[in-house]
Design brief:
- This protein is an alpha+beta fold.
- The protein has three helices and five strands; from the N terminus they run αβββαββα.
- It has a single domain, classed as Yope Regulator, Chain: A (2-Layer Sandwich), CATH 3.30.1460.
- It has helices spanning 12-22, 60-70, 101-111, and strands at residues 27-31, 34-39, 46-51, 79-82, 88-93.
- The longest helix has 11 residues, at 12-22.
- It comes from Pseudomonas shahriarae.
- This is Transcriptional regulator.
Length: 123
C-alpha cells in the first residue's frame, strides 16, 4: 500500500485540527479508505481514525489490539472497535488544554502502524 502523508504542518492539517478542537465538522482523508474525523460517543468529543474494510491489511485488527494491550501505558486513552460498517476505528477523547491534538493523532497512527502518514513525528 502506498501512503500519502498529511500536508505540511501549517496547512490543511492545522486547519483540520483547529476545526476538530473548536467543535466544527471536521474530516480529513489520509489515504483512500483511511480518514480522521470528529466522533462524539455520548457527550465526549473525540478524534477517530477510521480504516475502511477495503483499506484494512490482513491481520491489522489483531495487531492493533495486541499493541494496545501490550503497550497499555503508551496507548492509554485509545479505544479500538469496529463500527457498523466494519471499519476499524481508533478513538481518543480530544486532549485537554495544554495537550496537542497532533500528539494524540501521532499516537493513534502509531497504534495502527500508519506512521508513514504522520508528519508530526520526528524523523
Amino acid at each position: 500500500m502506498t501512503v500519502m502523508p498529511l500536508p505540511d504542518a501549517g496547512s490543511h492539517d492545522q486547519e483540520f485540527l483547529q476545526n476538530l478542537v473548536s467543535g466544527r465538522v471536521a474530516y480529513h482523508s489520509l489515504h483512500p479508505g483511511i480518514g480522521l474525523c470528529r466522533l462524539n460517543p455520548g457527550s465526549q468529543p473525540g478524534l477517530a481514525l477510521q480504516i475502511a474494510p477495503e483499506a484494512l491489511q490482513v491481520g491489522q485488527l489483531e495487531r492493533v489490539l495486541e499493541r494496545r494491550f501490550e503497550h497499555a501505558t503508551a496507548f492509554d486513552g485509545c479505544f479500538v472497535f469496529l463500527d457498523a460498517k466494519g471499519s476499524l476505528v481508533i478513538w481518543h477523547a480530544l486532549p485537554s488544554c495544554g495537550h496537542s491534538p497532533a500528539d494524540t493523532l501521532s499516537r493513534m497512527l502509531s497504534l495502527a502502524r500508519l506512521e508513514a502518514l504522520d508528519v508530526h513525528r520526528a524523523p
